[in-house]
Amino acid sequence: MIRPVIKRGDPRLELPSQEITDIGQAREIITDLCDTLIAIQGLYNFSRGSGIAAPQIGEPWQVDVMQFDGRWFYLVNPKIIAHSDEKELVPEGCLSFFDYRGKALRYADVTVESGDENGNQFTFSSGGDLNFSSLIQHELDHLGGELYTAAMPPGEQLVHHADKPFIP
Ligand SMILES: [Zn+2]
To answer: What is the tally of helices (H) and strands (E) in the chain?
Structure first.
């Protein structure tokens, strides 16, 4: 089911999400996240990657869905288990305030351990791809109740883009 995306300023985006143990419930959230993200992909051409986190549809559970370079990732209780030392500034946008863009400081490379939609654990890494690494950190930060503005260094400003489509 396509769900409305909760917008910045709603306190539900600022609460840490809970670990989810009911895999049936996790699957229902994954389905709604996929339906919602696919609908949004029809409004805007994400060049390489996009993602959505459960709290963005009002579900306070640790579930993310991401698509990067055509591949889908379904993440249940994901955790970053390793990262590079260095960080880099990466341009980001967020479905919860899509008409803004900003640059966040992100680890160049991360490795994630996560459950999948079947309850199996798996590990993957950004493989040295800075855009993938920033997407992963962005979506996992949502589960900690943080938007990318929390990763913007002092002096970086949000820039308004009036031309971006409204996300329902
Ligand atoms: Zn976001």
So the answer is: 2, 8
